[in-house]
Amino acid sequence: FHGRDRELSEVVTTLKSDSARVAILGAGGMGKTSLSIAALHDPDVAKKFNNRYFVPCQSNATRSDLVLSIASHLGLVTEGNLLPKVIRHLMDGPPVLMILDNFETPWEPMSSRAAVEEVLSLLTDIPHLALVITMRGAERPGQVKWTRPFLQPIEPLEDGAALQTFHAIAGEDHEESLVRELLNLSGNLPLAVDLIANVVVYEGCMTTLDRWQTESTRVVSDGYDKRSSLDISITLSFSSARMTREAQALLSLLSILPNGLSNAELVHSTLPIADIHSAQTALIRTALAQVGPTNRLSALMPIREHVRGIYPPQQ
Description:
Residues 1-136 form the Novel STAND NTPase domain. The protein has helices at residues 5-15, 32-40, 43-48, 63-74, 82-92, 104-107, 110-124, 159-170, 176-186, 190-215, 230-238, 245-254, 263-267, 276-285, 301-310; strands at residues 21-26, 51-56, 96-101, 129-136, 261-262, 290-291, 296-298.
């Protein structure tokens, strides 16, 4: 766990305040779960909250699934109308920290979003409950008064932290120029750095680079879930209800533009993309693209590589 000292400090400081409500946002593979777990085990946080619960939500497709999962982690009998039981149990208990990981799964479907947000609202009505959610994208759920200042969406690692992460997994006995080239391909996305380093352990830097030239992100996509496969992690973001056909077309274009597009280029473009600004908004909301310090819309290297392979831009 390297390069997240600032973000961890912000989360911990917020959790030490009263009635903290924190949303950890960012692209898939950015390390949101790792950050939340680091905060969960921080000594100051542990001192304040004897009762701390980490609730994975990636399998919770509905409001009922979400409530059932929370009740199970609280050790409640999972029968009958569970939500009042959950709220009563938490209301009558001591200070508690609850982390809802991968909250985008129950929140994404528009058909159930209001009901899922109602669960959050009821949880955050409990003054001695601190709530942290992790979510793909850059959009916070409604019906919650999130603690200000907001934690900004998590960004790629700084170069030094990416190198530390690589060395921690693959060791330091590698030619520096090859390591730098591999890290450039990773876009400093923590998941990509982790997976590339694990491939290097067995195949070395040169072989890994050679494979990337022909296999692209498939080199680090042999795993069976989003934490062990870069392609699966990126594909999950494509399944977001916030994605549109126009957003997909714009992302396809960005896949061949390392420097992205400026706002002026978007405004004056003759691209056959209806409502290009809505497409831009959809990509930002799902964190598949971002507007950087130079005010250009762009996508990270691993995302560009993946998209170019499955959704190449049309003529």
